[in-house]
Amino acid sequence: MPATDTTRDGERRRMLKDIRAAFARTDMPFGLDELDPRVMAALADVPRHMFVPAERRASAYRDKPLPIGLGQTISQPFIVALMTHLLRLDPASRVLEIGTGSGYQAAVLSRLAAHVYTIEIVATLAKLAAEALARFGATNVTARVGDGYGGWPSEAPFDAIIVTAAPDHVPPALVEQLARGGRLVIPVGIEEQSLMVIEKSADGTARTTTIVPVRFVPLTRES
Questions:
Q1: Is residue 159 part of a domain?
Q2: Which range marks the domain in which residue 96 is found?
Q3: Which stretches of the chain score pLDDT less than 50?
Q4: Residue 2 placed within a domain
């Protein structure tokens, strides 16, 4: 991957400070005391302004979601940090992302995992994200256009799965495609949404933990 873009280092440092402040004031479950330094380093490495529309780049490093067109958004950096932290990735991890969007989350994951598979249902967004990821140099990301509800069976199982849009229930295929010992991080709900972590144990059973209330765009399905 290319060397880190240093042209907006001051803005990125402020973003990281804002992420830490947001984490400190959020009521987290017991045991979630601080964000993984590796995750914070990945966010420091990835130039978020490369993944937002040109007219939004002045706001790229603010800790807030931004519209990216076609009714979709790039998630708030704090939420990206939190969801990535909850995956508990290591350098050998194979990750599935449902909802490529801008490509920013996939870029962050690419700094922490062996390979990232990402699915986007909106073809225009998928094309723009692929171009941004190529400019960034994320050679360990494989992307395709499709309905992420069914996951990516041919590449399963995955050590971690992240969903960046909210279904009204947890898609069964994603739990099935999660490796034993793996984690699925997903927002669930319609009017009221919660960020959930589903852990698959060594015997194949799944345990769900609710983390915090969130607000995501709905998960789009093929009609």
A1: yes
A2: 9-214
A3: 1-3
A4: no
Which pLDDT belongs to residue 220?
Answer: 86
Q: Is residue 102 among the annotated active site residues?
A: no
60 close to 77: Cβ distance less than 8 angstroms:
no
Report the domain count for the chain.
1
Full-model pTM: 0.94
What is the token pair recorded at 140?
């360990």
Q: What is the pLDDT at residue 6?
A: 62
Q: What is the pLDDT of residues 89-141, one digit of tens each?
A: 999 999 999 999 999 999 999 999 999 999 999 999 999 999 999 999 999 99
Predicted local confidence at residue 1, as pLDDT: 43
Catalytic residue among 59, 75, 93, 194: 75
Residue 221 in any domain: the answer is: no
